[in-house]
């Protein structure tokens, strides 16, 4: 099993139609379902998803009911949550060190702790992770699963 | 004579340089051994000094300068999984597959982005900007190091 940190940009592609780089997100989803990938994320990842869904509801991309279904399904998928111990301080340090936003730094710190690759569609997060010395992979570079 | 010394939660917090709340959390989740004496909770001082490698939830790190009651990242993930996942890996994968099926149905209920401003990347970027800015309000400004 391969461990990886996935960020909300990957997760949101599971939930919305007509998004770019969906093949990579589907490959991650398939690996999770097959049990060949163990994904982890920082404690704030579901809050980021929830906040994004709220904006999508306000922007009329999604109904409230559909958003509820998505949040429920995501909680069942059971992505490992990073140990929150002293997490904020470490994320703050990463943010200051490589000049990324604190939410981005949370993923970087998660990947650092888990010593695994970070997968994201967010170029700022990808760039920050690489500058921090973390192994990181752009979502469009995730190989599609062989069928 | 080998006399056991017992400490209060406050004394442990002070010795380890962690918050009282963290000590109480460690006691509650079993990572810090404790016993009740009358109405008071006491922690054997030996728990802070002896590494217990055989017990996965016990204090793992040796004393001296690195003494800490912090649960290791691996131990935390194991515990999180025990608490959040079903009783077997296969059942977890089955539940996960069902969740992805639900997610896919929900996805088909969403609307395509009406422009670059409401793609999931744009929405998430907005969330992270706002979240990051708010968090920055709580982070003290870093003083530049003298040349």
Walkthrough of the structure:
The complex is a heterodimer of chains A (147) and B (147). Chain A is α/β, with parallel strands linked by helices and 147 residues long. Helices cover 56% and strands 13% of the residues of chain A. Chain A has a single domain (2-141), classed as 5'-nuclease (Rossmann fold, 3-Layer(aba) Sandwich), CATH 3.40.50.1010. Chain A has helices at residues 8-13, 22-34, 45-58, 64-77, 87-98, 102-114, 123-132; strands at residues 2-6, 37-41, 80-81, 117-120, 136-138. In chain A, β4 (117-120), α7 and β5 form a beta-alpha-beta unit. Chain A is globular, with a radius of gyration of 15 Å. Chain A starts with a strand and ends in a 9-residue tail after the last strand. In chain B, 20% of the residues are buried. In chain B, a hairpin with a 2-residue loop joins β2 and β3. Chain B is mainly alpha-helical. In chain B, 45% of the residues lie in helices and 7% in strands. Chain B is elongated and about 70 Å long. The chains are: A alpha/beta (147), B mainly alpha (147). The interface between A and B is large, with 55 and 50 residues.
Using DSSP, what is the number of strands of chain A? 5
The strands making up the biggest β-sheet of chain B line up spatially as: 1-3-2
Question: Segments of chain B where pLDDT lies below 50 for 5+ residues?
Answer: 50-68
Percent strand of chain A: 5-15%
User: Which term fits the overall shape of chain A?
Assistant: globular
Q: Which secondary-structure class do the elements of chain B indicate?
A: mainly alpha
Mean pLDDT of chain A: 91
Question: So how many helices of chain A?
Answer: 7
Q: Which two chains have the most extensive interface, and how many residues on each?
A: A-B, 55 and 50 residues
Strand percent estimate of chain B:
5-15%
Distance between the termini of chain A: 19 Å
In the predicted model, the low-confidence regions of chain A spanning at least 5 consecutive residues are none
């Amino acid at each position: 099993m391969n461990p990886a940190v996935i960020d909300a940009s990957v997760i949101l592609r599971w939930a919305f139609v007509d998004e770019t780089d969906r093949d990579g997100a589907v490959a991650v989803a398939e690996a999770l379902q097959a049990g060949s990938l163990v994904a982890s994320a920082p404690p704030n990842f579901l809050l980021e998803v929830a906040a994004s869904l709220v904006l999508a509801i306000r922007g009329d991309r999604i109904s409230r009911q559909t958003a509820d279904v998505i949040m429920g399904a995501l909680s069942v998928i059971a992505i490992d949550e990073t140990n929150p111990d002293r997490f904020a301080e470490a994320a703050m340090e990463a943010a200051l060190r490589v000049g990324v936003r604190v939410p981005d730094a949370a993923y970087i710190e998660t990947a650092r702790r888990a010593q695994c690759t970070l997968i994201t569609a967010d170029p700022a997060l990808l760039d920050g992770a690489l500058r921090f010395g973390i192994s990181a992979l752009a979502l469009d570079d995730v190989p599609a699963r062989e069928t | 004579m080998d006399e056991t010394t017992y400490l209060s939660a406050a004394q442990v917090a002070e010795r380890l340089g962690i918050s009282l709340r963290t000590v109480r959390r460690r006691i509650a989740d079993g990572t810090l051994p404790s016993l009740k004496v009358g109405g008071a909770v006491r922690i054997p001082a030996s728990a802070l000094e002896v590494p217990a490698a055989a017990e996965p939830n016990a204090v793992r790190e040796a004393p001296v300068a690195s003494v800490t009651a912090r649960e290791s990242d691996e131990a935390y993930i194991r515990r999180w999984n025990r608490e959040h996942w079903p009783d077997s890996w296969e059942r977890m994968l089955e539940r996960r597959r069902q969740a992805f099926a639900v997610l896919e149905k929900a996805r088909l209920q969403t609307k395509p982005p009406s422009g670059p401003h409401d793609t999931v990347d744009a929405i998430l970027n907005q969330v992270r900007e706002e979240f990051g800015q708010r968090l920055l309000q709580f982070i003290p400004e870093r003083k530049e190091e003298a040349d």
